[in-house]
Amino acid sequence: MIVVRASRRNTLVRNKEGELLECTLRTKFLDTVVGDQVTVNEENVIVDRRERKNLLRRSFEERQKNLVANLDLLLVITAPPPLFNTKIIDRMLVGAHAENIKTALVFNKCDLNDCVTTGYEFETKFEVSAKFEKNLDVLFEFIQPFSHIALCGVSGVGKSTILKKLIPSAQAKTSEVSERTGQGKQTTSEAVGYMRGDSQLITDLPGVQAFGLTHISAEELRFAFPEFAQVKCKFRDCSHRAEPGCLIKDALESGSIARFRYDSYIEILSELEQSLPY
Ligand SMILES: Nc1nc2c(ncn2[C@@H]2O[C@H](COP(=O)(O)OP(=O)(O)OP(=O)(O)O)[C@@H](O)[C@H]2O)c(=O)[nH]1
Ligand SMILES: [Mg+2]
Ligand SMILES: [Zn+2]
User: Fold this and answer.
1) Is residue 34 located within the same domain as residue 131?
2) Same domain for 137 and 254?
3) Which of 37, 48, 79, 139 has the fewest CB atoms within 10 Å of its CB?
4) Which of 89, 113, 131 to probe ligand 1 with, by most ligand atoms within 8 A of CB?
């Protein structure tokens, strides 16, 4: 059985017959998130959780927020400025890559503005308009083989709108971005998984405002930038910061690695170095 909603009070679990059961946890040590495979007894008590194949999470120093488990694909959703934010996009991509979760970038609201996708050549990319149903068929065909997909992005980029195009019966709220700030209103407040047909789970995540990554190591971080791996910097432990002869720095100068991607890398690296215990 699979968890489709996990709030502090109760947990919603879908059984094999497709029924939704309101469950409680046997102990407070058994934390669950959407996507977890669990065992439920006759009293609707969750008694066990299967080992996770991956767990998308955010962290800051000792604190960690688990977002969703057992993903096959993370759709990182973005939209034209002021919602376009490469720092957050890169953090979501790193968070997924560090857990071996496949990713794709979805530039939504391309009816409003041309999407600028330069620098993300290494990613699978889609330019869509959920509102005007532009290119959605291409995106939907791509996601077909994946069993568990989550939609992630800052508030207001259109995650819940895309979800409702995927699953028209889904009861997910959407609301306009604020006219004053141009930002979303945190409409989705918790992760909810919706079934698309009998075998595909789509999880709509709340808008992220920050995406701390202090739980990953410097080595994992280097591997989480696919275009860095392609360059094959000859120093195994190179931080790509100031080492003489660093091939990443060369690639940066020649423009084959985007400056903003490198800046994201350095920002995350500094953050996780600072949070290391002395
Ligand atoms: N112009 C345009 N507007 C869109 C498009 N997709 C969604 N919107 C609008 O963007 C606003 C925000 O959409 P939501 O789906 O609520 O955004 P969200 O990402 O789920 O936001 P949170 O739940 O707050 O994280 C709504 O007013 C949508 O109608 C699009 O393709 N084009
Ligand atoms: Mg939403
Ligand atoms: Zn290097």
Assistant:
1) no
2) no
3) 48
4) 131
Coil, helix or strand at residue 213: strand
Structure tokens at 267: 């920002």
Residue 107 three-state SS: strand
Q: Are residues 44 and 60 in the same domain?
A: no
**Residue at token pair 């709108």:** 161
- Residue 275 CB coordination number (10 Å): 15
Distance of CA 22 to the CA centre of its chain: 26
pLDDT over threshold 70, residue 278: no
pLDDT in tens, 80-137: 999 999 999 999 999 999 999 999 999 999 999 877 778 899 999 999 999 999 999 9
Same domain for 70 and 200, yes or no, is yes
pTM of the model as a whole:
0.95
* Number of domains forming the structure of the chain: 3
Any idea what the CATH number is for the domain that residue 267 is in? 1.10.40.50
pLDDT in tens, 11-57: 999 998 999 999 998 887 788 999 999 999 999 999 999 999 999 99
Which ligand is the nearest neighbour of the Cα of 175?
Answer: 1
Check pocket membership of 162 for ligand 1, CB cut-off 6 A: no
Give the β-pairing of 192-196 and 200-204. antiparallel
